[in-house]
Amino acid sequence: LAPFSAMAQAVDPLPSWNDGKAKQSIIKFVEDVTREGSPDFVPKEQRIATFDNDGTLWIEQPMYVQMVFAIDRLRELLPMHPEWRDQQPFKAALDGDFKTLLKDGQGSRNLQTIVGVTHAGMTPEEFEQIVKNWLATAKHPRFHRPYTELVYQPMLEVLAYFRANGFKTFIVSGGGIEFVRAFADQTYGVPTDQVIGSSIVTKFERRDGLPRLFRFPDVNFVDDGPGKPVGIEQHVGRRPIAAFGNSDGDLQMLQWTTESGGRRLGVIVHHTDAVREYAYDKDSLVGHLDLALEAAKLDSWTVVDMKTDWKVIFPFEMKGEASPKP
Amino acid sequence: LAPFSAMAQAVDPLPSWNDGKAKQSIIKFVEDVTREGSPDFVPKEQRIATFDNDGTLWIEQPMYVQMVFAIDRLRELLPMHPEWRDQQPFKAALDGDFKTLLKDGQGSRNLQTIVGVTHAGMTPEEFEQIVKNWLATAKHPRFHRPYTELVYQPMLEVLAYFRANGFKTFIVSGGGIEFVRAFADQTYGVPTDQVIGSSIVTKFERRDGLPRLFRFPDVNFVDDGPGKPVGIEQHVGRRPIAAFGNSDGDLQMLQWTTESGGRRLGVIVHHTDAVREYAYDKDSLVGHLDLALEAAKLDSWTVVDMKTDWKVIFPFEMKGEASPKP
Ligand SMILES: [Ca+2]
Ligand SMILES: [Ca+2]
Questions:
Q1: For the segment B134-165, what is each residue's pLDDT rounded down to a tens digit?
Q2: With an 8 Å Cβ cutoff, is B191 touching chain A?
Q3: Is-contact A26 A302, C-beta < 8 A?
Q4: B255 touches chain A (CB under 8 A)
Q5: Domains in chain B, please, with CATH?
């Protein structure tokens, strides 16, 4: 037995994770549900794992990436809409005044208004190209790198580890489904049909003799909070057996996943590293984490302490490149 | 070269298809888009093929299978709702009076009313079990076999052939997404997350201390006609390069698939065999085919003549079991 056991240890599926409760709980779960004859064995077609995106797979501070994209789009369109300079919520967005923008009770309506003028009025293919062009040039204000480089190396390893063990991995984002699809395949190895997210109304029409889809400014689906289980059912048609999130928007997804009998895994990524990334939870407007951290105790979810559990945060650290000071 | 060519012919990917234009056009398409260096080569992640279900993958006469299921459910629930005996559209459904039920301009509202009382009021897991139980016992009135045996053998071969060539195969049904999911994996080898269909509203709630989803009678999405391209974009996030259908409900899906430049395949299954199955098109309420048959000429779609193109219709014929006379 010894040589096999040694071999298993030699191939560490999560090399960027420090040894500890979080890493152990993830590996133990995968081993339990994939070992033939195990009482917790789950057949392949039921191995569904869902991952929130912002703050779980990539950076979301100081502002959601898609929000930065939307504001850059506003600036680009501003010459045609000079009235936005004095009109809310555009003024707050253009001024980077996120407190006003995300004010309690108005945040989601404000975001919808901005999404309406920046994300609609084109085909899905055109929107995809706009997002790709932006991602190719935009840089994070602190790290001065493209956002697609600011993904979490330890979570890339989790995605690959789950897939290597027969899981289908789905992204379940509060962000826009077509926004995430523009980079999910290349960045996470998740194909477009395994991305779930919020959406605006899209309609079929013929224009200039050709069939096309066209994006309208009305909200079609909000894939956040109680919307996440609904979005998963719509797209996957099965309850996941593992779910990863980082904020209260993931509460119902993790509850629905784990409170269903059988061996389940719920994971909360807790941002605790102000030096290498950011430290925030219940006092943050972005990635607000409060109820879900309480629920983690009740439901025995794994809470990842980024500062102590992760050897590196971003892939570029693997090449010995240092993070800028906060 | 000769031995290879002989070998390729020896392994016929579509053995239940008679040689002819339809079979040749399907094989030529797959070869063109998968051959490295071909001007029509399509990378794997873009190899998306979509298939209508009723009348394309399985039988839909004398009545859509899901409609038969709904009427059987009505009968089961009738003791609690004796008023349905004299109340439309329930009376027409219970009497099997499909002319009244599907009357022009009222068909879709009638179906929605019936779906509302037969498909809602339970969790998705409970509904799946109800459908599975029904499919295990219900038999087709003419063929006296379970509906899952009344799938088209030649189309099962097409599904397998496309998948063997790196395609992801999606079902895009006007029928209920959760109804089709209950048998798609076992019957077609299509996993639940690759089934797209119409849906009713589903909400997250906590009941008796546990999280669950619950099905409500309101329509959420109609995956038919212009809804099919929209449903595909929502679920897949890409335009298919091949699409199969059999009625006017597939018109926009086939147009959107094929009128987009590049090598594309559109296929219409035309029911022309009254002896082995049914013969119907523009005069049928079920599987109404008129505009899409016209469009097939304009857009050079492949029209399958079931009578001449298919050696067998159903898998049981492969075992030498005959069909009952019409
Ligand atoms: Ca998040
Ligand atoms: Ca059909």
A1: 999 999 999 999 999 999 999 999 999 999 99
A2: yes
A3: yes
A4: yes
A5: 12-60+144-212+221-319 (3.40.50.1000)
